[in-house]
Amino acid sequence: MRRVGFLRATWIVAWKDLQLEWRTFDVLSSSVVFSVVVLLVFQFAMGGGPGRQLAAEALVPGVLWLAIGFSSVGGIARSMDAERRGDTLAGLFRAPIDRAAIYTGKLIGNAVRLALLELILVPLAVVFFNAAPGQAWWELVFVLALCSFGLCALGTLFSAIVSRVGRGEALLSTLLLPAASPLLLAGVTMTGALFRGETLASVGRWLGLATGFGLLYFFVALATFEFVLEE
Amino acid sequence: MNRSARPLGGLLLVSTLVAMPFALWSALLYAPTEQTMGAVQRIFYFHVPAAVVAYLAVAILLGSSIVYLYKRDLAWDDLSKAATEVCLFFCTLVLITGPIWAKPAWGTWWTWEARLISTLVLEILLVAALMVRRYADNRDLGARLAAILGITIAADVYVVHKAVEWWRGMHPQVFRAGEKESLEPKMRLALLVCMLATTLLCMLLIWLRYRTARIETRTEGLRLRDRDEGDDR
Amino acid sequence: MTAPAIAAARLSRRFGQIPALRDVDLRLERGERLALFGANGAGKTTLIRILGLGLKPDSGSLSIDGLDSKRRALEARARIGWLAHASLLYDDLTARQNLEFWGRLYAVEGVKARAERLLDELGLAGYADESVSILSRGLLQRLSLARALIHEPALLLLDEPFTGLDPDAADALRQRLTAIHSARTSLILATHRIEDGLALTDRWIMLTRGRIRASGLSTETDPRAVKEAYRAHGRPA
């Protein structure tokens, strides 16, 4: 009896999510628009006048992670929502695959979408606020990737929980944003260091925190995802 | 269960009733008035224990959540529910006493320091967990999801605390003055007494809430069984 | 001696504290077709979900095609096709993409060709590359059936598949269910539609308050007798 292994099942689920996104552009478009709005509003709130001169480098990390934090919630929620309309989550549950692969598959889908969002958002922020991380672009990419992974790892688990009780974005943001605050702090601190021209090594322990966070919740989710989907 | 629980409950009740007056006396009368902050500093003797005890309740929540996932016995879910609600109570206490102490003492209502922030985060997450319980279609689903959340929240609060501590490391320390300085022996004793009393209070509240939850659960079970069997020929 | 399609003993399940299924025994031979009747809340859906491995029983044993549902769960799941009122399809993908997705998950060999053939057989070829969201309820049901059949399951479970179908679509479904009947495919149909249930199956059982209260052979049973059984054992209104 041929059967699909864990990695292949993960890939099949992830590919399906990306296919869906490609056909609808639903999540990406609304996320991008939303985060641009956040940048804009922040500019109004903080910019203009003497405040503006005062260290755009100080503002940009905060605004960036604010935008990422809030937009990611919408995207992650909608990704799990797509499984509600046809009750496809029940279909996935019955498929002859390791149920944790449903988690990893959706995690990859969320991570790719978030990465695309950041690809658009970061240059925009650099332009709007006229601030840049010096030469440390690759380090910035690394920081973004690391913290985004943690965000998606926890967010995917929470989105499944929230979806099981028939709720959406509002409850997800209430759960995810406070719980992921260490990650956001890490992101802001490390991004801030890079924008100030410092090395990542100087904020090394935040790297450890972000990595630990991501791994911790990744494994908690792997262990408990089946229980969330049960029934 | 009933027989063996009563002595425990009785013991908790009596010891709490004895300890609380002691705590009040030690905090309000026995401990000397602090030089710089004055009488309002005495809130410290309730603020700090409340925070510590909230974390204790989280530890209990973690334990009962894990056990529930293994055993699927609703009694453990009732314990989780009790721990969640009592923790919420003490978190609220911390978040109220904090500003009350801070404003007259340091001139600011709020400070972004580790314990207050992690308590706030904990409060929000616990409320969300209770919402998940309520919105769930049936008891089993609610209990299971709440258990997974319980485990996640317990782990998370520790991480949040650490993260904020590190973060605050870059900013001037405003608070902790009342604690970081070496306490006078009398103050230390008062704090200890209050800590003990508050812990007993927490245990008592959890126990009481647990008992009520068990009765609710059992009653619901009887009601449903009754309705079903009544229709059987 | 081929293993029975289903061998279930003493299945019980409660939700919270509501008992939904009590000590149900069931045996279905290869190629046999069974109708599942019962009032709402009688345990029909619970039973068929447990048999479909979508729900775990609190106690009791279950094997599909000789595969124990606990020890060889993944293989057992691969033998089951499931059709319910929910479509189990992605609205924003095409019919073809949906079938290929599910086919891949079920490790179907030559999935593209198989999807193509199923679309043809079920008269959906014209909609193959259209978004599923444009399909009518009847066509959607046909595509859901294709999805259930993509991996050639040994056991097909249908949970009230006629819900919401107009007479034409219901006719079409009836015809297809009759057509796919073979010695290799077993079927369980949970439904309120007694005539359809009897016409499409070999025997039937009725659940009340989580237990099997009545049963019979479909060809020998008058629909009125089944309706009578509903009235006799069903919950008071």
Q: Tell me roughly what share of residues is in helical segments of chain B.
A: over 70%
- Greatest chain-chain interface? A-B, 31 and 33 residues
Low-confidence stretches of chain B: 170-175
Counting copies of identical and different chains, the oligomeric state is heterotrimer
Brief characterization of the structure:
The complex is a heterotrimer of chains A (about 230), B (about 230) and C (about 240). In chain A, about 80% of the residues lie in helices and about 0% in strands.
Q: What does this protein structure show overall?
A:
The complex is a heterotrimer of chains A (231), B (233) and C (237). Chain A has one domain. Chain A has ten helices and no strands. In chain A, α4 runs antiparallel to α9. The longest helix of chain A has 30 residues. Chain A is globular. Chain B is mostly helical and 233 residues long. About 3% of the residues of chain B have low confidence. By secondary structure, chain C is α/β, with parallel strands linked by helices. The chains are: A mainly alpha (231), B mainly alpha (233), C alpha/beta (237). Chains in contact: A-B, A-C, B-C.
Topology record:
The complex is a heterotrimer of chains A (231), B (233) and C (237).
Chain A: H1 6-24, H2 26-46, H3 50-53, H4 56-81, H5 88-94, H6 100-129, H7 137-164, H8 169-179, H9 181-195, H10 204-229
Helix pairs in contact in A: 1-6, 2-4, 2-6, 4-6, 4-7, 4-8, 4-9, 6-7, 6-10, 7-8, 7-9, 7-10, 9-10
Chain B: H1 2-30, H2 44-71, H3 74-106, H4 114-135, H5 139-168, H6 177-180, H7 185-231
Chain C: E1 6-15, E2 18-28, E3 33-38, H1 44-51, E4 59-64, E5 67-68, H2 73-78, E6 80-83, H3 95-105, H4 111-121, H5 137-149, E7 155-159, H6 167-179, E8 186-190, H7 194-199, E9 203-208, E10 211-217, H8 223-233
Parallel strand pairs in C: 3-8, 3-9, 6-7, 7-8
Antiparallel strand pairs in C: 1-2, 1-4, 4-5, 9-10
Give keywords.
heterotrimer, A: mainly alpha, 0% strand, B: 233 residues, mainly alpha
